[in-house]
């Protein structure tokens, strides 16, 4: 395909003027390595065409790219000028097309970026996750929760439990509860779900898919203690006289008032605690450490505690803000996150290429869009009911 005809296809695609067979031709061109230079030239020409998009001003292009690209960690290698032109072009086309999603395949020696557009629907019942949870009260009663509920759910001790229609549960404490009347509740988030909860002390917690939070309906005593499996983001209410503690496996995270994210899935080899604001103290076995904002504590399965500096906190909390965000992530890591959110089992067939991915995908994306992204990266998958099979 000549560069001129390729540029025409790109322009017509952006304006939704392509026939189905022309769309297939465009995607196939991007898929094949031997067309990369022609594709890059066409994208660069489009980027420089002010009449097409009004973004030929380098300063404007820099602003667009800065808004879209994930912030690289210091361990990443700088992008060469040739790679910059390609990445910037793809990013601008993504903005022009109104896309909120982009993905990058990181591989030696070339970096390829793909602006994502809706793919042909697949015969699959798989849907993105949504607001859903199961609340278990102190007496064992289970209450299913979703986005449609609104109003009082139950009363536990002196706390009234209220559900809002935006996928949020709130505990309203009406008074002081004696220590002997402590009642524990559990909020379970299934695969394919997420939910928010405001505890009786005002602490806000966002819970990711496949997570459980075990907590008292009202806090009493000298501290506030909850237990977590899975992943959660905490905004802790400041009560200096009552430290807030999160128990994760054999680790205790203690704070007075701060924002932090904890990732502690049973199928992950490392428990990660990432601090955004304030200060926290970690304790596991005989080891202790204090975190500063931007640091991440990592606890290995064997109990070893290490501290990682200058973590990309936007990547860590992307799930809370409605995105998957990857930075040099292996396909196995990508698939773990996708499997929890889309409620999919994952299996692998054959020799899967050892590649790394980077970029951002809206969690509202359909599974068809995800499959298209992987196919463009030469990772082939197929859906069998609620099972995704990854192939070379």
TrEMBL record:
A GO molecular function held by the record: sigma factor antagonist activity
InterPro entries, per database record: FecR, FecR_C, Ferrdict_sens_TM
Residue ranges crossing the lipid bilayer per the database entry: 84-105
Residue ranges occupied by any FecR protein domain in the UniProt entry: 190-281
Keyword annotations from UniProtKB, A to Z: Membrane, Transmembrane, Transmembrane helix
One matching Pfam family: FecR
Superkingdom per UniProt: Bacteria
The UniProt record lists the keyword Repeat: no
Keyword Transmembrane helix among record annotations: yes
Stretches assigned to the Protein FecR C-terminal domain: 323-390
The protein's name: FecR family protein
Lineage: Bacteria, Pseudomonadati, Bacteroidota, Chitinophagia, Chitinophagales
């Amino acid at each position: 395909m000549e560069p001129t005809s390729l540029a025409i296809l790109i322009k017509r695609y952006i304006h939704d003027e392509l026939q189905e067979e022309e769309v297939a031709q465009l995607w196939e061109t991007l898929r094949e390595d031997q067309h990369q230079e022609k594709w890059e030239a066409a994208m660069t020409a489009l980027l420089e065409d002010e009449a097409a998009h009004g973004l030929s001003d380098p300063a404007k292009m820099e602003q667009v790219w800065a808004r879209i690209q994930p912030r690289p960690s210091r361990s990443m290698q700088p992008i060469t000028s040739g790679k910059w032109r390609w990445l910037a072009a793809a990013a601008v086309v993504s903005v022009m097309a109104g896309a909120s999603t982009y993905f990058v395949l990181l591989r030696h020696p070339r970096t390829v970026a793909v602006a994502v557009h809706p793919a042909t629907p697949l015969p699959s019942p798989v849907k993105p996750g949504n607001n859903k949870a199961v609340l278990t009260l102190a007496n064992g009663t289970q209450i299913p929760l979703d986005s449609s509920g609104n109003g009082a759910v139950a009363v536990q001790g002196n706390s009234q439990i209220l559900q809002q229609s935006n996928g949020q549960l709130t505990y309203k404490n009406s008074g002081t509860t004696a220590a002997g009347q402590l009642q524990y509740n559990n909020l379970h988030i299934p695969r394919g779900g997420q939910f928010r909860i405001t505890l009786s002390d005002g602490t806000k917690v966002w819970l990711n898919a496949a997570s459980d939070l075990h907590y008292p309906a009202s806090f009493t005593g000298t501290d506030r203690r909850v237990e977590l499996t899975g992943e959660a983001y905490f905004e802790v209410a400041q009560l200096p006289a009552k430290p807030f503690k999160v128990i994760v496996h054999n680790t205790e995270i203690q704070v007075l008032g701060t924002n932090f994210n904890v990732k502690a899935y049973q199928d992950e080899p490392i428990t990660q605690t990432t601090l955004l604001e304030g200060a926290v103290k970690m304790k596991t076995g005989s080891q202790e450490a204090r975190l500063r904002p931007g640091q991440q504590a990592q606890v290995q399965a064997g109990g070893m505690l290490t501290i990682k500096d200058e973590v990309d906190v936007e990547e860590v909390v992307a799930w809370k803000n409605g995105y998957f965000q990857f930075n040099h992530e292996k396909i196995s890591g990508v698939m773990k996150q996708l499997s929890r959110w889309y409620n999919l089992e994952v299996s692998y067939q054959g020799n899967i290429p050892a590649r790394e991915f980077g970029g951002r995908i809206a969690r509202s994306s359909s599974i068809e869009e995800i499959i298209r992204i992987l196919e463009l990266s030469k990772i082939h998958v197929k859906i069998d009911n609620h099972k995704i099979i990854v192939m070379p």
